[in-house]
Amino acid sequence: MKGFSFTASARAEGVAAKGWLRGHKWWLLRRATQIAALGVFMAGPLAGLWIVRGNFASSELLGVVPLADPFMFAQSVVAGTAPIGVAMLGAGLIALFYALVGGRAYCGWICPVNIVTDAAHWLREKLGITRDRKLDRRTRHWVLAGALLASLATGTIAWEFVNPVSVLQRGLIFGLGAGWTIVAAVFLLDLLITRRGWCGHLCPVGAFYGLIGRASVTRVAAERRGDCTNCGACFNVCTEPHVITPALKGKGSTLILSGDCVNCGSCIDACPVDVFEMTSRLRREAR
Which PANTHER family match (predicted)? Predict the structure, then answer.
């Protein structure tokens, strides 16, 4: 039906039961975090406030703490670059951080391209676009492998030439130029061709962080799954709905353990009976 939004309808369940603010709590926190992260990187070149120097792939916090994307570091290693101590430390710090908060929390809480794809999804539902070319979500792992092989073959950090995150950040500071075609392609893919196509099926950065996320400490749990009313709000609002079923409908752990989970909290917002909560794997296993 034109103009019908599964996501908006799913959120309405939570809003009706809990009020607008509680029904959007985690969404508001995510957007604030994404905007703040982008703002911190842009504050230096635009306003001379150098909290962080660099970009999302490699940077330095307060001129002291090195930070590096582990996926970029892995590409540099397979490209034949001798590992530099500061780069190893930066990649290790980021990997440790996401091992604590959830690997793909990067996708839902930090990555600026997530705002682009969420905007495409919102417009897709507003326009009632139903075309959804099915892609195997494992495709992103093939793209990940391809990026590493390209780095090996060329001796470069190959993905950085087309990485939409880096292109978007550079474009916001210097003007995108031809780089707009990459960002526009991601937007149009999610708008016209496949639902959640980029983040859910193709992005190798998300695939890499998903590997880290398999062992992450912070988890969403269907703690009160016995109260579930089968309204489907959580599945409709989730960007990776397949991760919910084992925790909500299974007989084992109530923790959502898949590395594909972005720990976005959307299911917590949408659930009208508060089945879900953000918790810790360590706290649950200590019980």
Answer: FERREDOXIN-TYPE PROTEIN NAPH
